Amino acid sequence: MTIPAPPPTAQPSTGRTYPARFISRGRLAARSFYWLGWLAFSRRSVVNSGVEREIYVLGIGALRLVAASSLLVGLIAIFQVAAQLAPYGAEPISPRVVTWFAARELGPVVVALLVVARSSAAIAGELASMNATGEIDALRAMGLDPVKYLVAPKLLAVIVVLPALTIIADALILGGVWIGSTVFLGYSTDRFASGIREAFLTRDLGVGIGKSIVFAFIIAIIAADEGLSAERRSSAIGEAATRAVVFSLIVVLGADTFVNAIFYFIPGLI
Amino acid sequence: MQYSTSYLDSSDRAAVLRVENLTGPMQGAVIHDVSLAVPSGATHLVMGPIHSGKSMLLRHIVGLEQPLSGRIYLEGARVDDAIDSDTQLRRLRARLGVVFEGSALISRISAIENVELPLLEHSDCSAAEARETARELLAEVGMSEVADWSADDLVRSARRRVAIARALALRPAVLLLDEPTQGLDGHAAHEIDDLLGELQQKHGFGVLVFSHEVRHAFGMASDIYVMADGVIVARGDRTALGESDNELVRQLLHRRGTTA
Hints:
The structure holds two protein chains of two kinds.
Chain A: H1 18-41, H2 45-58, H3 63-85, H4 94-132, H5 135-141, H6 146-184, H7 189-199, H8 202-228, H9 235-265
Helix pairs in contact in A: 1-6, 1-8, 2-6, 3-4, 3-6, 4-6, 4-7, 4-8, 4-9, 6-8, 8-9
Chain B: E1 17-24, E2 31-38, E3 43-47, H1 54-61, E4 69-74, E5 77-78, H2 86-93, E6 96-99, H3 111-122, H4 127-140, H5 156-167, E7 174-178, H6 186-203, E8 206-211, E9 223-228, E10 231-236, H7 238-242, H8 247-254
Parallel strand pairs in B: 3-8, 3-9, 6-7, 7-8
Antiparallel strand pairs in B: 1-2, 1-4, 4-5, 9-10
């Protein structure tokens, strides 16, 4: 008898169907919610300390990116809006327009897209790598639910981090607007401040934070699902990360469109 | 030496872990008619080339795969029958300590929290008791100093030691080790072998090692099963296997000190 040759390399996956993805994510979401409940009430510390570290990695680690991007987005927005309104003589209201748009739209969407780009791939890649090396199976073999120990802490961390980053982003977008409107457009700080006072409503901030919580669920569940369902080969890790980013972007923007359509078509909501 | 697929004899009936004529998994058999037994306090080795079916056998023993036929007994209870019952499977898994290839520690938590996990999950002990037990286990494997380090920050040999401590947390009847010294240098690998020997002597659990590293056959294992193409092609101690005229066994043992 000779030593048998290794089997051929696994064929690339043909991919799951969209209904299969939908069902898988639904199940994962349900299981994650169950463990989120457990996390909220359990006094056992292990998973909770995992959440703290996830918050650090996903939140604190993203601060620099979010801060720099938000400031620049504020500047870009004030230039664009001022340029568009100038022909109608409405340039002076541009800080007000951007402020309103920042709280409702720019803040949550910019942060969601940045977190997708930075963390969605990381979450999917980490879980796919654990899957490829058999570590997920190892947890199952020890009677430890991977959703409880790996997915729920990440989900909770993203739910905490995204609204917090959104509030920071809102403030820094306004900072960008202030710099743009005072330094480059020549408005006084008083005019900027009065525009902000008129436009910045707590309700708008609430809508933005509400959206960011929805986006957090979408990002964490899609990334975790793609990671956990990755095939056991090294190239599947990159593929899972890419799919997580692509699907998260589409679903986040789709969800945002849906929310905006509701606000637009239902009178009185906006 | 016989080359039958059944290598159990009457003395194996009392073994703490017994696999009888196992064929699986259900969705397409990879291992065929595999039988083995691990008595309490003994160290057995399943040796074979990569892709010979060792990992699939391990997956069956820990209840990750449903067999097509055959039986797996752990302390007399059927593992293969428990697959459909979460409660039963959890109870049986608590009696198995598993150290997977790559250690499988949860990276975002500390070494001591990794060791606490099985205690918090499978026992009624308080968080303080779990912490104390985990501390003692880490001391036993010589990892007290890195107890509070994140698992991510540990070197490979330290991860392996912490994984052994975690596997021992529930005082298992059998310790299963998948490629326990894979990726370690010779010195670290021998230290792990020595550590396992000491722990086994102290706690008396059975050990089943799955490895393609031939050197294990010349170390701790009292009984060696040679696996190829999903079947066990030979069983014996190292003397018996050394006299084997099976070409695979000869090829494997000829490469002593290297990998198969």
